[in-house]
Every structure is written in structure tokens, then in C-alpha cells.
């Protein structure tokens, strides 16, 4: 173990604070490392559609540039744009899955499907990915296709993108409705198959329909606070409160448009402003990271994954306790995924009992 003074990116101020908090750091290569569990990025989609890789340094996320972050668990979303429906949506998903398999080969990156996979990644301080889907259109209107998602290792699905699909309406639909009959059945089928329902991009009505049907906690993987930035993609205080009370989580989104009313003025600090608001609503165990890397324009003072240690440091500089910052950047998401797996087992037992 190198001495703690042998720092890399940490300022003296933080080192003093850190000693006070008594947190023990991993001192590999002469400095502490931060932990990161990011609930949303579009890097896999980009790697597939741009015939590139997960190791492209011109993307926001490159798995070659993870210095200072360990463990690092990244949810990789297969984005289904609104013009993809039916077999086109299913084929896009299959193409991304093939790309992922090819990329993970001999990469040392663990594919995390179960809570055990997540735990092993955490304990080894390694890199892991969780496959997710952004857009229920991937099901092509047939809930039997959820078993294909499960087989491919998908752990979370955003119900809609901005438009309308077979499940219901997204946040971009005028006079939007909520869940369709198929959408309602899908919520139950997702829970039965251990796939977390994600309400980022949902219309307000679809959000409330989901809250009514869901028996398990659900998440908003990449949405900010409407009270801070009144964008249709952000959550009202009431929505945040429902997710919080139900034991779900909310990932802070780095998209400029969702961070600041005047998006060109958005800065990294606006992530803290959104976090601050959620924390004022009692969100210490609810707020997580859902950066939207490679799917959004991020603030000019950020580069991508390589900016995460600076963001972590910025939280500490604003007098957030080390324990709270670790919860936001890693533990809240990690604990949620592990808890969801347990709840699924209990719920499937309960459903079986009710059907006897
Ligand atoms: Zn999105």
C-alpha cells in the first residue's frame, strides 16, 4: 500500500477531509480510486452503428480510459430509436448483442447478469458491464420476446423512448397517453423475468400507470429534477418521491438540455445542483449516476468518463461526506441491483402462491 500522501488527482483539502472521515482507500498506484456504477450510456449502440469498438478514445466512454475508477460498472444500453419498430427493432438488438460479445472476448470486462457477478466485479475492483435496452419497441409487441432479453442478459429496460411504441407513449408525444394493455402486461412480465422497468423517457401518464401496476421498485435511469431544469425528460418532485418511497433509484443525467434551463450554459456544477435538489427530497439512498454518455451533448467542461474523478472531487469540495458521494457514485445502484434480484425471488414465490 502506498501512503495516502502519495496522491494522484486528489487535492490536499480532500486528503485532510478524508483522514477525518476515516475512510480507507485503495492506494494502488499511489492514490485513492473512486468507484463508479453508471446506469446509462449509449456507447454500445454507437460502437455497433458506427462500426467501432468499446475502446474508442474519441467516444465519451472508452474502456481503455478507466484510470482512477475501480470498480467500474457500466450499464450499456441498446437504444431503439423511434423509427425502429417490429423486426427492425429486434434486429438492431441482436446486432448490438453480437457486437457486445465480440468486444468482451479477452477484454477482462465481466458481463454482469446476477448479483454475484456484480459482487465479484466489486470485490476484484475490476470492470463490469450490465446490458440494458432503451425502448420497449425491442419486444415488437410480443411479450414472449422478454425471454430473449433475459437470455441475452438484459437487466433493465426503458419502457419507451420519446415517441409512441406498443407499450405506450414517451415524453415527446403531444397529449400523451399512458400504458396500453400490452404495456400493462409487459410491466408484470418484466418483473417475472427479473428485468427492471425504467421510466426515463416516459410520458407523465405512463409513469403513473407504471406506478400503479408495478409490484417491484422501478427506476429512472437517466433523468434530472424538473424543479431545477423544467424539461419534459426530467422528474417532478412527486415522481421522484414515488420512486424513492418504492425503493427505486434515479440516475443523474449529464445531458446539457436536462441540466440547465439554458443548455449552452450547462456546466459540470449543474449536476450537483440537480443532485442537491433530489437530496433535499430525502434522496440519499435514491440518487445515482446515469450519465447518458455517447447519447447526449455534455457540458463543455466535461470530456466523458475521464471527467468522472473531477466530478467526484467536486462533490467532495462542496462538503458532501465521502460516504454520501460513494453512495451516489456506486453503492445506491449496486445495492439496488442486488436487492431487486432478492425481491424478484420473493415476488415470484408470492405470485405462485396467489395463483394456487
Ligand atoms: Zn435516453
Bound molecules: zinc ion
Rg, alpha carbons: 20 Å
| The first-level CATH class name | Alpha Beta
CATH superfamily: Metal-dependent hydrolases
Percent helix: 25-40%
Shape: globular
The count of DSSP E runs of length 2 or more, i.e. the number of strands, is 10
Mean pLDDT: 91
User: SSE string, helix = H, strand = E?
Assistant: HEHEHEHEHEEEHEHHEHHEHH
CATH topology: TIM Barrel
Q: Uncertain spans, ≥5 residues at pLDDT below 50?
A: 1-30
The biggest sheet, with number of strands, parallel, antiparallel or mixed sense and barrel status, is:
6 strands, parallel
Structural class: alpha/beta
Strand residue content: 5-15%
Folded structure, characterized:
It is a single chain. By secondary structure, the chain is of the alpha/beta class. The protein has one domain: Metal-dependent hydrolases (TIM Barrel, Alpha-Beta Barrel), CATH 3.20.20.140. Helices cover 40% and strands 13% of the residues. It is built from 12 helices and 10 strands. The chain has helices at residues 12-21, 43-49, 87-104, 115-124, 146-151, 181-192, 204-213, 237-245, 256-259, 269-280, 308-317, 322-355; strands spanning 34-38, 69-79, 109-111, 127-134, 154-158, 164-165, 168-169, 196-198, 250-252, 287-289. The strands form 3 sheets. Strands 1, 2, 3, 4, 5 and 8 form a 6-stranded parallel sheet that branches. The chain has a two-stranded antiparallel ribbon with strand order 6-7. Strands 9-10 form a two-stranded parallel sheet. Helix 2 crosses helix 3. The longest helix is centred in the last third of the chain and has 34 residues, at 322-355. The chain is globular. The termini are far apart. Mean pLDDT is 91; it is low at 1-30. Bound molecules: zinc ion (ZN). Zinc ion (ZN) is lined by residues 134, 200-201, 222, 292, 295.
Amino acid at each position: 500500500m502506498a501512503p495516502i500522501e502519495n496522491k494522484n488527482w486528489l487535492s490536499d483539502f480532500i486528503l485532510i477531509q478524508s483522514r477525518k472521515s476515516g475512510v480507507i482507500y485503495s492506494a494502488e498506484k499511489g492514490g485513492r480510486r473512486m468507484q463508479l456504477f453508471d446506469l446509462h450510456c449509449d456507447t454500445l449502440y454507437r460502437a455497433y452503428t458506427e462500426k467501432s469498438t468499446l475502446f474508442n478514445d474519441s467516444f465519451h466512454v472508452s474502456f481503455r480510459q478507466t484510470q482512477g475508477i475501480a470498480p467500474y460498472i457500466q450499464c450499456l444500453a441498446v437504444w431503439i430509436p423511434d423509427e425502429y419498430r417490429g423486426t427492425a427493432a429486434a434486429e438492431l438488438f441482436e446486432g448490438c448483442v453480437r457486437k457486445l460479445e465480440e468486444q468482451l472476448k479477452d477484454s477482462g470486462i465481466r458481463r454482469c447478469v446476477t448479483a454475484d457477478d456484480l459482487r465479484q466485479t466489486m470485490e476484484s475492483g475490476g470492470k463490469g458491464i450490465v446490458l440494458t435496452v432503451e425502448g420497449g419497441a425491442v419486444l415488437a409487441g410480443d411479450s414472449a420476446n422478454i425471454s430473449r432479453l433475459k437470455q441475452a442478459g438484459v437487466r433493465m429496460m426503458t419502457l419507451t423512448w420519446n415517441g409512441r411504441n406498443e407499450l405506450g407513449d414517451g415524453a415527446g408525444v403531444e397529449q400523451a397517453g399512458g400504458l396500453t394493455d400490452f404495456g400493462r402486461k409487459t410491466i408484470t412480465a418484466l418483473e417475472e423475468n427479473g428485468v427492471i422497468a425504467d421510466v426515463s423517457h416516459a410520458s407523465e401518464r405512463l409513469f403513473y400507470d407504471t406506478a400503479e401496476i408495478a409490484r417491484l421498485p422501478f427506476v429512472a435511469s437517466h433523468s434530472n429534477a424538473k424543479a431545477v431544469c423544467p424539461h419534459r425528460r426530467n422528474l417532478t418532485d412527486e415522481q421522484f418521491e414515488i420512486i424513492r418511497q418504492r425503493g427505486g433509484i434515479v440516475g443523474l443525467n449529464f445531458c446539457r438540455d436536462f441540466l440547465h434551463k439554458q443548455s449552452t450554459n450547462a456546466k459540470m456544477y449543474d449536476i450537483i445542483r440537480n443532485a442537491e435538489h433530489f437530496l433535499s427530497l430525502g434522496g440519499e439512498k435514491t440518487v445515482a449516476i446515469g450519465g447518458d454518455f455517447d447519447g447526449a451533448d455534455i457540458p463543455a467542461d466535461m470530456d466523458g468518463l475521464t471527467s468522472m474523478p473531477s466530478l467526484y472531487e467536486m462533490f467532495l469540495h462542496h462538503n458532501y461526506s465521502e460516504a454520501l458521494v460513494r453512495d451516489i457514485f456506486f453503492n445506491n445502484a449496486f445495492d439496488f441491483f442486488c436487492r431487486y434480484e432478492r425481491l424478484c425471488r420473493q415476488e415470484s414465490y408470492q405470485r405462485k402462491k396467489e395463483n394456487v
